[in-house]
Write a structure and sequence with these properties.
Layout: H1 2-13, H2 16-38
């Protein structure tokens, strides 16, 4: 997916605190997508 490539690019430039924030956001998005798939 294009978003995965974009996230990897962001991670390569990101500060550690921003990187952890991105990973948290990604986890929440994945949880939300899983909920949508179940319904």
């Amino acid at each position: 997916m294009m978003s995965d490539v974009y996230l990897e690019m962001l991670r390569s430039f990101a500060q550690p605190s921003f990187q952890s924030y991105l990973e948290q956001m990604e986890g929440e998005l994945n949880d939300y997508i899983d909920i949508l798939r179940i319904n």
